[in-house]
Amino acid sequence: MRQVNPGRMDRQLSPEKTEAILTGGMQEFLTRGYAATSMDRVASAAKVSKATVYSHFQDKESLFIALIERLVKQKFQSVFGEADEQMLQRPPQEVLRSFAHRALDIGSSEPQFLNFMRLIIGESGRFPQLARAFVSNIEQTAFSKLCHYFTHCPQLSLADPEATARIFVGAMVHFMIVQEMLHGKDIMPMQRDRIIDSLVDLIVEGRR
Amino acid sequence: MRQVNPGRMDRQLSPEKTEAILTGGMQEFLTRGYAATSMDRVASAAKVSKATVYSHFQDKESLFIALIERLVKQKFQSVFGEADEQMLQRPPQEVLRSFAHRALDIGSSEPQFLNFMRLIIGESGRFPQLARAFVSNIEQTAFSKLCHYFTHCPQLSLADPEATARIFVGAMVHFMIVQEMLHGKDIMPMQRDRIIDSLVDLIVEGRR
DNA sequence: GTCTATAGGCGGATAGAC
DNA sequence: GTCTATCCGCCTATAGAC
Fold first, then answer.
1. Could you give the CA distance from residue B193 to residue B9 in angstroms, rounded to a whole number?
2. Do A35 and B31 touch (CB under 8 A)?
3. Topology of domain A6-68, per CATH?
4. By the 8 A CB rule, do A123 and A184 touch?
5. Closest residue on chain A to B121 (Cα)
6. Which residue of A121, A167, A177 is in closest CB contact with B122?
7. Tell me, in Å, how far CA of A39 is from C1' of C18?
8. What average pLDDT does range B53-73 have in this prediction?
9. Looking at the domain covering B76-207, what would its CATH class be?
10. For the whole model, what pTM was predicted?
11. Closest to B195 (Cβ–Cβ): which among A33, A167, A183?
């Protein structure tokens, strides 16, 4: 490996080209997957020559890893980088509902996020380090915020806040996976509000 | 398309070879993914010539689709083809716990099932019909069984049994995805019993 | 029916001009 | 630093022998 990090290299390369390659590569890898993406197409999408791609990144695998790691950090901070100061003062139903809606909005509003998750999951056997990075950043962020809330919210007294947080996040993410990613919407439709209502009721009010 | 179904074709082909191709192809596709699998390797794994593969299946895509559709049906009947006659007589805690353990055992015991789900999810953008087949068979089976139980179990009176069933299955599947598929076990371990206990308590006993 | 052999193209990666 | 041109191997798919 010659240059894993594009920032510090043997000779100075244009940061604009690096950016163009990462952006072009992102489009290609997200829509075609790892194996079906060719470096020719990455070069075309980035509007540089293939040799330039290889002068900025050692090989296809290095480019892919750099690109996904960057994407993991981007998605991570864009999604849950919100103030949670007055969360404890608002009614739990409201807090949980807003949390659930924000989580589900990601899947339905931004189609590239679905491809991003498809790629992470699809390559998790061959690129375990990327899957772990994803879990550390995305999953663990949503999870730890919710976990902190479940532990400290005075209106809730849960036997196992950590496990409950996983159930909450799990129900949301799975709903998104089945409905949006796996096209379950077409064959077994279900309003998101029914899931959210039931989940909030189970956690906040107990069984009705 | 010349021959989608290997059973009825222009000229008679050996069913043993068809079986060998499907089995060999399964190994290759499950471990390498769709794009990275070559027909040469499929032929080698099946111990036939490449030309024989092409006489049994029109092209790579046809083989892949036939193979995944078969796998969907196999996994479907092997996993939840169980008697549920006395379910209504047993205590709900016991029924739900057994259900949860069976669901989670699939992921931890059979490593090829993880690759199977990786492939379905990873290719769900490019092969939507396979994703829908998966949802129809696997997800909907688990879901509808649980849904039926939630609706008819006399000890439970849930406001929305359907939504609750989705929450239950979602929490289980998401736990499996994060812990096993995405290697979350290594970086954020959590005993499965804590999830199951919390989930069962939420549904059966209400909040403690 | 199944094989060997091969066509024809596209893949990753590099050499060398400027 | 970035380009054009090229190497060479592997890919999907098929032709033709048996």
1. 51
2. no
3. Arc Repressor Mutant, subunit A (1.10.10)
4. no
5. A118
6. A121
7. 24
8. 97
9. mainly alpha
10. 0.94
11. A167
